[in-house]
Amino acid sequence: MDDALAFSALVLALSGQLVQEIDARVSQQGFENLRPVHGFAFARVAAGDATTADLAVHLGVTKQAAAQLVADLVRTGYLDRRPHPGDARAKLLELTERGWAATRAADEAARSAVAPWREALGEARFTELVSDLTRIAPRGPIRPVW
Count of CB atoms within 10 A of residue 82's CB? Predict the structure, then answer.
């Protein structure tokens, strides 16, 4: 296998492993009703000034699918809707305390999930790898692959 194909396969394998491990660790922290897509949604809502339409764009889904996701997250206590100051038809989304707690659990899960990689590579090489990946990673939303 050439380097380009090896790199592609390895990055995809690591990405899948990371998502699965974060999901499992978040579930173990008492957030069993969350799925990985919720974390991608929480990242956009946490950034501020998010509407359901913004969330649809961020996730790469229809407005209807985003509306269903928002309704589920409101119903389960992770999100609130509040009036949008500039658009009477739109609602701003915000994380509830439960939503912030799930976000903190996911952040800690991500740190724990990559800890073995940091240990295997050593601190200096891990820092270099993060720097290298930062240079080549696309900018913009990190979204699930549908």
Answer: 9
